[in-house]
Fold this protein.
Amino acid sequence: MSLVFLHFSPFESITPIINGAKSWYQFGFFSVQPSEFMKIIYIMALAYVISQHNKYKIEDDLSLDVKLLGKMAVVSALPMLLVLLQNDLGTTLVMVAIFFGMVLISGISWWLILPVVFVVTTVGVSLILGILYRPDLIDKLGVHAYQFDRIYSWLQPEKYVSDSGFQLMNSLISIGSGGITGRGYKDGIIYIPENHTDFIFTIVGEEFGFIGTTFVVIVLLSLLLRLFRISLLTHDSFGGYFIIGFLSLLFFHIFQNIGMTIQLVPITGLPLPFLSYGGSGLWANMVGIGIVLSIYFYEVSGKKEARFNK
């Protein structure tokens, strides 16, 4: 309901448009981004659908897999649409990553998954190639080439350094200038817009160098591996599916955020979990970690203790 009201709200003082996106509730100095918490609820909804469906699945049947995929698509359609209408492509992509991550472990046959992945990949690659080499065809589809400035500035930031490529070029210069050990804490000299949120990894690279960025990557990778291990140990299917969904969320955030600072992927407004400044995203991630710890306590460590007491 909060996403619905956010979209249709006529009160600009409460639901302002920030950086082209209408994604926040503003109450004086306090702001909340409901889509961040919605991602946790979305994971819970998918985990419930998968666990309930598989509870009564007694044999491999492609028709049952199609039914499960349809259920997941129905659950995903409305929240994805509402987030996309906010002009928040980054969060929409996160939800797509969560969806595919949970599809992979849902038990759906690969004979069904592979054709879908092939179609999506083909469409995506065709779109990018069309943007680069046949923008006239893209215009005929009703989408203007200038709307893909992020793609152009991602592939050739030096050509757009005075405009859309400014942030990426400075990010590359900043990380490169850090060298092995970095310039030192608060000794960075390259100006990076949004350096406390979306581009926090750039600051780590400049101030702490290759050693600092490697340390950050190792810590985040260790967190993901730990989540995966807990998902394997839990005996509750809902809990296992939730953990994989949350892992997919964190993985996409980490990959996208770090990747966009080093020109690996296009720039989107996604923060680096537990490092970027921000209230709603940090709260939502802490809620997710809290749920995982609860699952671990009741489904893993608790049962280990019970077996030991016997």
Remarks:
- Residues 159-310 form one domain.
- The radius of gyration is 21 Å.
- The chain has eleven helices and two strands.
